[in-house]
Amino acid sequence: MQATLLDYLNDAYQLEGTAEIVAIQDEEEGKKSIVLKSTLFYPQGGGQPSDQGCLDSEEARFQVQKVRFHQGIVYHIGEFEKGKMEVGGKVVQQVDECLRKVNRINHSAGHLIDVAMLNCGYGFHPTKGYHFPDSPYVEYAGIIESEQREKTRLQLQEEVEQLIGKGGVVNSFVVNDKEALRDHCNYVPDYVPSDKPIRVVQVAGVGCPCGGTHVKDIKEIHGLRVTKVKVKSGKTRINYKVQ
Fold it and tell me: Which helix (H) or strand (E) segment is 81 a member of?
């Protein structure tokens, strides 16, 4: 199969569109997976959970419960609610709007934490981002001493509030190769996926390699709270919540 075209990279606010079925496969626990020529559904990865929603044809509906990416192919995994579909047929993609909104705000909030850390004088490299709504955080290579952690939390909170109040367009674009990332990103990790487009996301002017879905303007991240600063195994973790 040819690599799936990742239409969600073009517009994180487009939630409906047609696509052609490339394959239908059996999965574990009686589930099915549907591969489309192009997709609006974000597959889990980069610390962001997958989209959910449904695929509709004239006679069938398929509930998309999770989405996975493997070697360039996006698999929409779930169950038929009614009817059946055939390879070569067309479906209408319907991405769950509420879940997409939560995911793009939480992911963009993690990038805004990166900016706040830089603006507060912490040049730590980010090592991990977890942008699931249950307990999101960003982890950094470096230690903030225990007596400074509450002060740092308050500084970060003040900084993110100022950034959100000021607002700013979130930009994204694809570059040709990993080396080009260094012209646009504050930090480039050693590992950048080779089976996806190499994409830069800029939040408040700070670039980062990222394939996730994001808000159009950082004003949409209102209600962001920095909840905790802690250190474990030589890394600093900044926990946050978005209401």
Answer: strand 73-82
Closest CA to 41 of 80, 1, 71, 73: 73
Q: Is the pLDDT of residue 178 over 90?
A: no
Each residue's pLDDT tens digit, 16-73: 999 999 999 999 999 999 999 999 999 999 999 999 999 999 999 999 999 999 999 9
Q: What would the two tokens of residue 68 be?
A: 């996975």
Q: What does the alpha-carbon distance between residue 75 and residue 138 come to, in Å, rounded to a whole number?
A: 27
d(CA 220, CA 88): 39
Instruction: State the residue for tokens 């994204």.
Output: 172
DSSP 133-181: TTS-EEEEES---GGGHHHHHHHHHHHHHHHHHH--BPEEEEESSHHHH
In sign, the C-alpha dihedral spanning 172, 43, 110, 165 is: positive
Map tokens 């699931």 to a residue.
132
The CB density around residue 73, as the number of other CB atoms within 10 Å, is 19
Q: Using the predicted structure, report yes or no on whether residue 191 has a pLDDT greater than 90.
A: no
Sign (positive/negative) of CA torsion 124, 130, 131, 133? negative
- CB proximity list for 53: less than 8 A, separation 6 or greater: 15, 41, 64, 93, 94, 95, 96
Q: Give backbone dihedrals phi and psi of 194, rounded to 5 degrees, phi first.
A: -95, -10
Predicted TM-score (pTM) above 0.85: yes
